[in-house]
Write a structure and sequence with these properties.
Layout: H1 4-9, H2 12-34, H3 39-47, H4 49-65, H5 69-99, H6 104-108, H7 110-132
Helix pairs in contact: 2-4, 5-7
Length: about 130
């Protein structure tokens, strides 16, 4: 028997939206790095992934609202852990950058930070699932 979590994680529409969001982001990154564009086109390409990510996040929130109480609690704890890790990570980077030169643009900049947030969410989700199940 499929649980709410099984249905939630394996929904074709949700997964399609997630893949589409990543694909549009990757295409925008590629175009901005490799193709010569006017300033207006560069701005347009830079914000192109935003509506896709917004739709994905809205879908994510709606799906959380449909989960049972335990699964919502797990999601909340995962997000709380991710938030705490993000604060710790960003503070550490900030302090270290005052002492040693970090390649901030190449590896630690805002354009990469969302990937760390996603990683922290999955770490938090693993911790929360282990705790409650």
């Amino acid at each position: 028997m499929k649980t709410d979590v099984d249905r939630w994680e394996r929904s074709p529409r949700f997964l399609t939206l997630a893949v589409l969001t990543v694909a549009v982001y990757a295409a925008a990154r590629f175009l901005l790095a490799k193709v010569e564009l006017t300033h207006t086109l560069r701005v347009t390409v830079a914000v192109l992934p935003v509506p896709f990510l917004a739709l994905f996040l809205l879908s994510f929130i709606r799906r959380i609202r449909r989960l049972d109480e335990l699964q919502r609690k797990i999601q909340l704890e995962a997000l709380a852990i991710a938030y705490a890790l993000a604060i710790l990570f960003r503070m550490t980077l900030g302090l270290l950058s005052t002492v040693i030169p970090l390649p901030l643009k190449e590896h630690w900049s805002y354009e990469h930070f969302w990937l760390y947030l996603l990683f922290f969410y999955f770490v938090g989700l693993g911790i929360a699932r282990e705790r409650y199940q």
